[in-house]
Amino acid sequence: MSKKTGFHDRSYDLFDEQIDPSENYLPKDGIVNYYGPVIPPQDADNYLRRLLEHIEWKHDEAVIFGKHIVTQRKVAWYADQPFEYTYSKISRRALPWTTELSALKARIEELTGETFNSCLLNLYQTGSEGMAWHSDAEKDLKRNGAIASLSLGAERKFSLKHKQSKETLSIDLQHGSLLVMKGTTQTHWLHRVPPTKKVSEPRVNLTFRTITVIKE
Ligand SMILES: O=C(O)CCC(=O)C(=O)O
Ligand SMILES: [Fe+2]
User: Fold this and answer.
1) What is the CATH number of the domain that holds 42?
2) Fe2OG dioxygenase domain spans which residues (predicted)?
């Protein structure tokens, strides 16, 4: 199929890769849908370049067992309002949407039929940077709200592990692809991005979320 397909043409993702976005990847206790690439490769390249330039990337910080940790991975946080969001015990105040983020948010809302009011961005500069097992069930997040994860750049493995049964599964997240976690996924499953020696290129991940507790 031609790669000229326009950005707004839904047929791009639905037919090109034979991926069914309504298929649930989880065997139980939640819903994970993988849409495959939803942004044509050249547009995805442009978004990656512009996000690397325009986003206010900062090292991620956390307090773990009373110790202040600064991770290699960089993060950024954007939203409708200057929400304060507590993530691994560190509070951050959201920045206003950039042009690129507003366009991507609109595209993802259109594809998923969901709405989002915030986006946490992660920059994995090489394969040596990853994200440890966790679930996104912070109290500020809408309970059982959908989380839409857009990947740009290097393809990385995304793993899910059931908290009780320890069942594990993995999905390779392609350049320009969309993954959605919803229902009770965060209650019953952990997820991570394992580090890998096979990748040296950067990857940017955007997770669109809904925040409910509003602090001024
Ligand atoms: O980079 C990813 O694909 C996952 C990011 C993630 O789990 C998070 O930001 O909470
Ligand atoms: Fe997460």
Assistant:
1) 2.60.120.590
2) 115-212
